[in-house]
Amino acid sequence: MRINFLNHRDPETLRKSILRAFASLWSSRLLIWSAPFLFLLLFFFRPLSKILMLAFNTTALTRANFQLILSTLSFTFYQASLSAILTFILGIPSAILFARFNFFGKPLLRALTAVPFMLPTVVVASSFNALLGTRGWFSFLFPLSASQTSTPIFHFLLILLAHVFYNTTIVIRIVGNALSRLDPKLEGAARSLGADSLRVWRHITLPLLRPSLFAAALLVFMFDFTSFGVILLLGGSNFSTLEVEIYLRVLKLPNLPLAALLSIIQLLFTLIFSILYTRIINQVATQTAPRFSTSRPPKPIREKIFVASFIILLSSFFFLPLVSLPLRSVTRLEADRGQRGEVQYGLTTDYYQELFINRRGSLFYVPPMQAAFNSLAYAGLTVLFSLGLGYPAAYALAKPTRLEKFLDPIIMLPLGASAVMLGLGFILSFGRALALPWFVPIAHTLVALPFVIRTLQPALASIPERLRQAAATLGASPFRVWQTVDFPILSRATLSAATFAFTVSLGEFGATLLLTRPEYPTIPIAIQRFLSQPGGLNYGQAMAMATLLMLLTTLAILVIEKLRLSDSGEF
Amino acid sequence: MKPSFYLLLITLLLASCAPMPTPAEPQTITILTHDSFAIGEDVIKAFEADNNAKVVFLQSGDAGAVLNQAILTKDAPLADILFGVDNTFLSRALDADIFEAYQSPALTDVSAEYILDDTYRALPVDYGDVCINYDKNYFAENNLTIPQSFEDLVKPEYKDLLVVENPAISSPGLAFLLATHAHFGDGYLAYWQSLKENGVVVADGWESAYYTNFSASSGQGPQPMVVSYASSPAAEVFFASEPLTEAPTASITASDMCFRQIEFVGILKNTPHQALAQNFVDFMLSQKFQEDMPLNMFVYPINKNANLPDVFLKYAQVPEKPAALSYAEIATNRDAWLEAWTEAMK
Q1: A355-387 pLDDT per residue, tens
Q2: Are B247 and B144 in a shared domain?
Q3: What span, in angstroms and rounded, lies between the C-alpha atoms of B4 and B6?
Q4: Considering the domain boundaries, does residue B265 fall inside one?
Q5: Which of A362, A528, A535 sits opposite B41 (nearest CB)?
Q6: Could B338 and A252 be called an inter-chain contact, meaning their C-beta atoms sit closer than 8 Å?
Q7: Which residue of A has its CA nearest to B45?
Q8: Of A44, A63, A131, residue with least CA distance to A322
Q9: CA distance A124 to chain B (A)
Q10: Which of A32, A135, B194, B232 has its Cβ near the most Cβ atoms within 10 Å?
Q11: What are the chain B neighbours of A252 within 8 Å (beta carbons)?
């Protein structure tokens, strides 16, 4: 549009058309923003400010509290930075692996890397235990005594490991997706001018990847920064992040003013990271070639070694702990327990059959199919909501005016809000209406939205305006422009975003926000129910349910990736 | 993007905030409770049929989280009844004055020692004992004697064998901490120091302690002793993968080593369904409800006339002398004890 202004000769007409363009720009911007902004206002800012206003008062501003805040904050920073760095060390080569090379089982392996993201922390811990615990097979290789495994440093290492395990998928998806969108001609041109691989990386690939690298870094860091379950579960009693401390101060050692202060600090830091990100990224436009698939089989021996070693590394890191779940779900484990003579190991489908039996006639019995259906329905709605809200927001953010420069960092705030505090805010704001099943996908959307926007935004920004103009000049309708220009470039990013929203919902992030109604149980709730009582049957059923969740999500991701291939046509 | 889609979306979002429509009849009664609450379907169906009512359960986290929410929403309660406040939280609920007094006639079947609140705002419903469970097989194989006191636990032969829950996070963890306080008084911190030197493992909650750390659970962890419930061995038999004639675990029920948790129910102030709520409280104390509870929640009925299921009679142990600590004392000191414990165990 702006180019057109230059064609006007008469300064008065020019001024008028600029004004008109800006007026329509503003009103269209407001329209674009209305839905996402209303959503955030209603379901984020209002509940949060309600609880903060109620809870915060100046009695929290004491010296002792500041010391607590300072030490918690520095640990939070420290572990988040280390975790993020380690995640990148594993994530970047993996992203290259998936973006550049074709190999057998690639879709499955990529789907597997996303599975930890949505499994309940207790289940992940127990699968790690099967592998690394004192009775796991890993202990034959590296025997560790109980006193070694109870030291703080061991717990700290476990926390880092778990963060890498959970978040590598973010790097793989965001960076890998950008990498496969890069125009291979650019690298080809550099090479033909005599640049070696290192120079190509430094001067061509890396600068072009910058937006997605920063987007991934921000999300990974934020997830580690607000880490909760992992720290509680694996940290012993030694470590607490801001999020953990807020939870403790709301529920366990009640001190609401302190909790409110901690929440404000966590939000403030989220905002700072987000502003920094916006500054750094500063809209680097990336050239893309959506119609070329840049992945190919590895050719030189160097590449073959790289591909083979990373396949082995990734599959042992992601596959082995995860495979222990399905194994457990079909293995009878009573054998060496109790004082009974006969030892019989064996395969069994008991746990799966038992899932379908309501043995105690309980009102709270969860039929597995219904749980799966509820989980999928919630996840589907979350995808719908978060894409519907995220698309216009990302669209506006990709071509920022002053309004967007202001709104951009605010988009990330839901990731930095403590779930317990927001939960209390929800209860204050919505009261009895919270029991409506609608609130589940809404809460999930709140968490998924920052992901969706940050995934779509770099892709949208990368579309050169001149492509759209060219199409329009050739007589294409706005929809046709969108269909032929935007959509092919966006399809990858959209599917990545959809996958994120889907997994966020299946993993029940933000579930603590809500009052659950036993009529609408989901798979994670069913797992939790089984694990809350002793007994081999309960444990077996929990593993069976976790296996179902795993299968369901792996399948869903594979289907989503299949869609991508068929939709974008000429691959 | 199509504006009509947004209109639809906005309407849907706004519609979802509208208050729930209440059908003219039957009356709906809502019970706010913790995530581990469970009860039989036909028991609730029977109440619904007798009272022309619909019973709705809201579950929202653990007992502490639920109580918090009830206190915050005192003026516009989320539910008519709150079930699941235990004796470690009781005074917080009473101080916040969220309950309406109701002296249920069914209390005549409850032994007086459980009626802690003499203003009848919180009525006892069930109880359970938090005790150390041990892996029978491990102790037999290693020819170890079962520790019979807190003092035994710090002996070298039990080094690295016990996993407890973090009392600042988990309710059985807190119960165990309270038992040590009842026994040692202010010396409890020194005791925990020696437990720490003897390799006690602190897990965050019951689930990870039992299923990841405890050696006799299906998780097959490293520690053969875990802080759990006296009813857990019965649950191990009831939920065994294949029929068991003997429990793989047992509880240490020596005097002072267990802590008794009592769970209470109360009618929330400002409820519009007071009469129905009173009926439901009576019903919770009735034999029908009380006899259904043990297998659903693995707790003991408070009603003296309620019969226990066989698996409880055979495999659950009842400590003769659980640790004694008044709820008022717990109320005044729990936060300070927890802070001190957290500091000492760092």
Answers
A1: 888 877 788 888 888 888 888 899 999 999 999
A2: yes
A3: 5
A4: yes
A5: A362
A6: yes
A7: A363
A8: A131
A9: 11
A10: B232
A11: 64, 168-169, 338
In this prediction the ipTM stands at 0.81
Containing domain of residue A94, as a range? 37-322+347-567
Q: Compute CA distances A248 → A260, A420, B338, whole Å.
A: 12, 10, 11
pLDDT tier at A531, thresholds 50, 70, 90: confident
User: In this structure, what token pair is assigned to residue B13?
Assistant: 């979002």
Query: At B196, is the pLDDT very low, low, confident or very high (cuts 50, 70, 90)?
Result: very high
- Report CB contact under 8 Å: A251, B65: yes
Rounded to the nearest angstrom, the minimum Cα separation between B106 and chain A is 24
Q: What is the DSSP letter of B119?
A: T
Q: How many domains does chain A have?
A: 1
The CA-atom distances, in angstroms, between B321 and each of B115, B314, B330 are: 18, 20, 18
Q: How confident is the model at residue A509 (pLDDT cuts 50, 70, 90)?
A: low
Chain segment A465-508, per-residue pLDDT in tens: 788 888 888 888 888 887 887 777 788 788 888 888 888 888 77
- Tally of domains within chain B: 2
User: Both B340 and B221 in a single domain?
Assistant: yes
Q: For A301-326, what is each residue's pLDDT tens digit?
A: 888 888 999 898 888 888 877 787 78
Nearest to A517 among B58, B201, B345 (CB): B58
Of residues A122, A518, A533, nearest to B57 (C-beta)? A518
- At A232, phi and psi to the nearest 5? -65, -45
**Which residues span the domain enclosing B79?**
23-127+261-309
Inside any domain, residue A18: no
How many beta-carbon contacts under 8 Å exist across A and B?
247
Could you say which of A332, A365, A534 has the minimum Cβ distance to residue B228? A534
- Residue A3 pLDDT > 50: no
Which chain A residues are closer than 8 Å to B228 by Cβ?
534
In whole angstroms, what is the distance from residue B226 CA to residue B208 CA?
11
